[in-house]
Design a protein that fits this description.
The chain contains 4 helices and no strands. The protein is an all-alpha fold.
Length: 105
């Protein structure tokens, strides 16, 4: 009975850790990107698309590295944070790269 309890607690902690990592590389970069784009009055639609693309590329490259080399791929997961990094480098007036928020945004 104690063994079953230990397995149950270990499994729950493992699932929670995996879900936390998935949220940190998918949802959080998108949220940060949208907040930064909105605060700089850039096009949120453009930056949502850029963020979604970088998240997909990061996850796909991490999967590819894991599939071919059999190791956990932490470095490709950093690609999911490229969009917030690009916005961090842009200033508010750089609408050529950042786009302009329309009246509907």
């Amino acid at each position: 009975m104690v063994g079953l309890l230990i397995v149950l607690v270990t499994f729950t902690i493992l699932v929670a850790a995996v879900l936390a990592v998935l949220v940190a590389v998918t949802v959080v970069p998108m949220f940060v990107t949208l907040q930064m784009a909105e605060s700089r009055r850039f096009s949120t639609a453009r930056w949502a698309a850029v963020s979604a693309a970088t998240v997909l590329v990061g996850l796909a490259s991490a999967y590819s590295v894991h599939k071919h080399h059999g190791k956990a791929a932490v470095l490709p997961l950093a690609l999911t944070w490229v969009a917030p990094g690009m916005l961090w480098l842009l200033e508010q007036g750089q609408t050529r790269w950042g786009g302009r928020a329309g009246l509907h945004e």
